[in-house]
Amino acid sequence: MQAINIPAFTPDPSTLLPTTVPLPTPKPDQCLVRVTHCSPQHADILHAQGKHQNNNAKKGWCHPPFILGYDFAGVVEAVPSDGASDAFKKGDRVFGAGIGAFAEFVCVPQRQMRKIPSDLSAETACAMSGQAVSYAAVVNIAKVEAGETVLVSGASGGLGNVCCMVAKAKGAKVIALAGDKDKAAAMEKDMDVDLVLIMEGDWIDKVVEFTNGQGVEVCLDNTGMVNDAIRCLAYFGRIVVLGFAARKGVMEEVKMNKLLLKSVTIMGYRFGESGRRFPQTLEEIWEGYLGMLRTGEMKAMIYGKYEGLKDVGRALGDLHERKVYGKIVVKVVDEGERSKL
Ligand SMILES: NC(=O)c1ccc[n+]([C@@H]2O[C@H](COP(=O)([O-])OP(=O)(O)OC[C@H]3O[C@@H](n4cnc5c(N)ncnc54)[C@H](OP(=O)(O)O)[C@@H]3O)[C@@H](O)[C@H]2O)c1
């Protein structure tokens, strides 16, 4: 099959091209899925470069040679051989996350995938497959309430723009942070938020001004800006640390007295691990998240046009250059195309 194979870590994932590799063999608890769509994200760049915690030689599971990719939509080609569950059958339309998804076929443990609701397209399901984390961050972790003001960093990104939509659906006012003028203009046009701010100059004063001097109740931090978030917060404000997209691997240091002075709560949230530890809560999160998609409270924001695995490198380059707002979906093959197996 064709796949984006990583024989060794690479500094520039935009140069990656598909090559021919052997068809993967599913483990007894895995489905073999024919990939119709895949969605590159920030973590894929780090995986390819060897800079992600999953690349850690002792604790990680992403070591060369490996096939890149995570979020996918596709069709079940073969069900698990362990017979432990009949959750899926051949031909089911599915989406989820499985390492090796930038390929024509991927092997995925059953707990990492779910059926695509019949009223969703595979493209939408793929675009939204990685952002249940944002729903959970708003609803389960920050517990955002109607009338609160929520600040979202990296709001143009996959996680960020879903954080904005969920917070709006919960009745909050949302301030979205953008990296530059062009993105800010696009976000103002396409996103239902109350204020878009570019992170330059006196942007923190503008956040505080917007809240009549009180500060925001919640910051959902996707980029690693806790010190700035504390300055934007109201007394008793909450910060959820979701990611470090802007930190280039260098973590912030935070002075504890700043937390005390404003009675700040900072919460980290690791979606995958939380789901493994609390599967019942994970199911409730997915139900709530997909529910919002179906009612139209949330919609996929799809950026650009990418077709074929040959476009994965370009997609990773565009992500790296911060051109993207919303999610890239690469159409690997038409949904209706017959399996070559
Ligand atoms: N906690 C969890 O369980 C969990 C799950 C999945 C992902 N994550 C992490 O969450 C973070 C966001 O993920 P994502 O998928 O939303 O990423 P993404 O789609 O690439 O979005 C990240 C956003 O951050 C902003 N940004 C600011 N400085 C940046 C920089 N130097 N390089 C790249 N982007 C920069 C960009 O917006 P502007 O250009 O407009 O500033 C970009 O849109 C990542 O660190 C990811 O690893 C965490």
Automatic annotation (TrEMBL):
GO MF term list: oxidoreductase activity
User: Which Gene Ontology CC terms are recorded?
Assistant: mitochondrion
User: What Gene3D superfamilies has UniProt attached to this entry?
Assistant: Medium-chain alcohol dehydrogenases, catalytic domain, NAD(P)-binding Rossmann-like Domain
Which InterPro entries does the record cross-reference, listed alphabetically? ADH-like_C, ADH-like_N, ER, GroES-like_sf, NAD(P)-bd_dom_sf, Zn-ADH-like_protein
Q: What is the top-level taxon of the source organism?
A: Eukaryota
Domain named Enoyl reductase (ER): residues: 9-330
Q: What is this protein called?
A: Enoyl reductase (ER) domain-containing protein
Organism, by scientific name, is Saxophila tyrrhenica
